[in-house]
Amino acid sequence: MPCLLELALLHPDPDDMDWLVPTSPQEVMTRLLRGMYDEVSASQRRVGSAVAAFEWYAGLGRQVQPAPPAAERSAIRVLDGLARIQAAMDEATQACTTEVLTVQPGGIRREAELSEGLHRALALRSRGVRMRDLYTHVARHGQGLLNYLELMGDAVEARTLDEVIDRLILFDRTVAFIPANTDRTMALELRHPAIVEYLVTVFERLWRLAIPLTAPLPDTGIEGISHREQSIAALLAEGHQDAVIAERLGISVRTCRAHIARLSETLGAASRTQLGVRIAQAGLDGAPRPTVSPPLSVPGQESRTAR
């Protein structure tokens, strides 16, 4: 009833104010149409003013200085919408002749994500273009990625890290694509040499730190603690929340908390505060340690040591 009153579809009965009666449909329609007409008229006036202002400023630009060269105008281009992003990526793929570098965050790659760029990857392989891909360690457990790499053969080399930067695709070290919003419906196409060179440097440094997909992950040196749990422990020691840790490592929050529970059980911690202490004692916080130190026994598990 409050909505009907607000829209004036009901009004108090003049003969009895305790009752509500319907408003005449003709009266309601006339009022609504009048409001719509006023809104349309106001919008038309605003559009007219904006067009006039734009034309005036455009005229000043032509008088003051010439338009920048085409190369400068395209140094940074905003791609709004998946269709424009796909078209720009296809264009860069066709022009690529030597190398593609990619960073793919987000853990296990979904089949849809792999299929989306498969036609570009196959086209690049057919021309002898070399590809290097960086993933998180979690991606090792995705069968779709393993199938993709088997299909691509020697054309693709993949390595993994605990965590990587946001998505990055570099073609021939001349053009780069990065996301421009969180849901990746917008992207930036970067052709400025300084920016592209900076991104290439970032990629190469991450590549040197990464572990080849064909090589096993290093052992933590502590029985019962996996490499992933070691990474989680280091991020917990830095004070990050569960959701942040999960996002950075490419796993779900539920999986992250399950690892934290196993970590607490292995280290004999009864609370998060105590877990932080145990992580530091076991040397899992990533802090530098003395070159020579006595082994630390994990509480409740004398046979397990941390070096």
From TrEMBL:
A Pfam family it matches: GerE
Record-linked PROSITE patterns: HTH_LUXR_2
SMART domains, per database record: HTH_LUXR
SUPFAM superfamilies: C-terminal effector domain of the bipartite response regulators
Protein origin, superkingdom: Bacteria
Residue numbers spanned by region Disordered: 284-307
GO process terms (BP): regulation of DNA-templated transcription
Molecular function as annotated in GO: DNA binding
Span of domain HTH luxR-type: 218-283
Alphabetical list of Gene3D superfamilies matching this protein: Winged helix-like DNA-binding domain superfamily/Winged helix DNA-binding domain
PANTHER family hit by this protein: HTH-TYPE TRANSCRIPTIONAL REGULATOR TRMBL2
Protein name: Putative Bialaphos biosynthetic pathway regulatory protein
Species of origin: Streptomyces afghaniensis 772
